Automatic annotation (TrEMBL):
Main location: membrane
Gene Ontology CC terms, in alphabetical order: plasma membrane
Entries under InterPro entries matching the protein: ZIP (IPR003689)
Species this protein is from: Nezara viridula
Organism lineage string: Eukaryota, Metazoa, Ecdysozoa, Arthropoda, Hexapoda
Protein name: Uncharacterized protein
């Protein structure tokens, strides 16, 4: 019993340390190499899924068979597992809805019509509600993970479950770190520059910036709506603005793929590799 208590305390410290380490890992790794979190998320999910079916589910079935509750339905363990799964799914979907996550096809007309509203509200994107909902979603994960570890009766089972949870947790926290506002300066910079220019093109605001720019004659039709393809600085301003922030931003905008120009959302910038010119870094 004493060894089990020590193992549970050690598991608590190990899980906390793992979460902290893998929260900082993207900050270090992304500066040295190009990598994504999706393979890590799939690996962590597979480890947790295998642990659920090979370790937790048989243990739950054995515990129910040895309980004093009398004869129970044979499908009760699987039913309880499904209820837990859908509870977690509900919490995560609620968090996505509250955060305003888009589940629409990028090629849909609905996405196009909603995009202007998204651009008009980007400056209020980092509201406290976003941080609260992400914290709630992660905290619910923590509650069930803590219960699973705390209810184990033997130290070796505690460590097995701790390893599985750590493999899953490390990938979750790494992914959420990159999803929050703690983004790398280059990603933030390209996002705000692209969004600023998009605002100028579509709304002609702010007027002082719009007057600095003109559109080339080439027009790209997309979703039955024509939008300018490239930007350029008028000839009478080229000399004085050649090395300015506006000129460098225009060059950056013209180097972007069409998809990013029409939908300059944060998720688009993170999922599609972009080589940022040194002039706007």
């Amino acid at each position: 019993m004493e060894n089990t208590a020590v193992a549970k305390v050690g598991a608590m410290l190990a899980l906390g340390g793992t979460a902290l380490a893998f929260t900082l890992l993207p900050l270090i790794a992304a500066r040295r190499c190009s990598w994504g979190t999706q393979p890590l998320l799939r690996f962590g999910g597979g480890v947790l899924l295998a642990t659920t079916f090979l370790h937790l589910l048989p243990e739950l079935r054995e515990g129910l068979e040895n309980s004093e509750l009398g004869e129970l339905p044979e499908i009760l363990p699987e039913l309880l597992m499904c209820l837990g799964f859908f509870l977690m799914y509900f919490v995560e979907e609620l968090a996505h809805i509250m955060l305003g996550a888009e589940h629409h096809d990028p090629n849909s007309e609905k996405r196009r019509l909603c995009n202007d509203h998204e651009i008009n509200t980007i400056w209020t994107e980092g509201t406290p509600l976003r941080a609260i909902m992400i914290t709630v979603a992660i905290s619910v994960h923590q509650v069930f993970e803590g219960l699973a570890v705390g209810l184990e009766g033997h130290s070796n089972q505690v460590w097995i479950l701790t390893g599985a949870i750590a493999a899953h947790k490390s990938n979750i926290v790494s992914h959420h770190y990159t999803e929050l506002k703690l983004l790398f300066p280059s990603v933030r910079r390209q996002y705000f520059i692209g969004t600023f220019l998009y605002q100028i093109i579509n709304n002609h605001r702010p007027s002082y910036a719009y007057n600095l720019l003109q559109f080339k004659s080439s027009i790209h039709s997309l979703f039955t709506r024509s939008r300018p393809s490239d930007l350029y600085i008028p000839s009478h301003r080229s000399a004085s603005f050649q090395n300015s922030f506006i000129a460098r931003s225009v060059n950056f905008w013209n180097s972007l793929p069409i998809k990013i120009r029409h939908f300059p959302s944060l998720s688009t910038y993170k999922t599609i590799p972009i080589s940022i010119p040194k002039t706007v870094r």
